[in-house]
Amino acid sequence: QVQLVESGGGLVQAGGSLRLSCAASGSIFSIDTMGWYRQAPGKQRELVAALTTGNSKNYADSVKGRFSISRDNAKNTVYLQMNSLKPEDTAVYYCNAKAKLPTSPYESDYWGRGTQVTVSS
After folding, report:
1. Higher per-residue confidence, 113 vs 53
2. How far apart (Å, rounded) are the C-alpha atoms in residues 73 and 63?
3. 47 three-class SS
4. pLDDT band (50, 70, 90) for residue 46
5. How far is Cα 24 from Cα 14, in angstroms, rounded to an integer?
6. Beta strands of the chain (E only): which ranges?
7. What 3 state SS string does 90-119 have?
8. Pairing state between β 77-82 and 18-26
């Protein structure tokens, strides 16, 4: 199995910055896309940013120009640099990895437990 551990959440004032990290470990054959999703109270989980091994990036319109995703493939770690944070960015942020195990040719979704990001006005 694949374990994802997030870190870097917290409380920050509007306009501030945070950097989230997510490290994948376990019996990993390969990881294609790694990314971040978020879920605010009463809302559905939504994609924030994703990054493939080919360095193709995808951002939600609401974070373009403020957030930046990067990745260290050697460490199976993905980062999310969040700048100019707004109160509406407040949510639990979840790391996601689309990975293959050595025992299967199929790719599966794996999720971290989430890290809380709170932006005060």
Report:
1. 113
2. 23
3. strand
4. very high
5. 30
6. 2-7, 10-13, 18-26, 30-39, 46-51, 57-59, 67-72, 77-82, 91-100, 107-111, 115-120
7. CEEEEEEEEEECCCCCCEEEEECCCEEEEE
8. antiparallel
